[in-house]
Amino acid sequence: MRTVSNEPQAGPLGTADPEEAAYLALHAERETIERSLALAQVRQRFGANADEVERAHVEERELLLTLDRLMTRIRAAEYKRQPGARRW
Hints:
69% of the residues lie in helices and 0% in strands. By secondary structure, it is mainly α. It has a domain at 19-79. Helix 1 (18-46) packs antiparallel against helix 2. The longest helix is centred in the last third of the chain and has 32 residues, at 50-81.
C-alpha cells in the first residue's frame, strides 16, 4: 500500500533541480523552527524558575515571527510551482 504525504519530495534518486532543492530547504527550515517552537512551549509549561519561563516566552515570540516570515516564503514558492504561475 502506498503512503500519502503532504511533504514535498525530491525526484527520482533524490535528485532535484535548484528550485526544487530550495523549496525542500524551506520546508526543512520550517520543520526545525516548529520543533524549536514546541520545545519553547514545553519550557514555558515546565520551567524550573520564572527566568527560564520568561526566556521561553521571548524565544516563542521570536520563533513565531520567524515562522510567519518563512511561511510567507513557502507560500510564494508554492505559487511559483503552479502551472502558468505569473512571474513578477
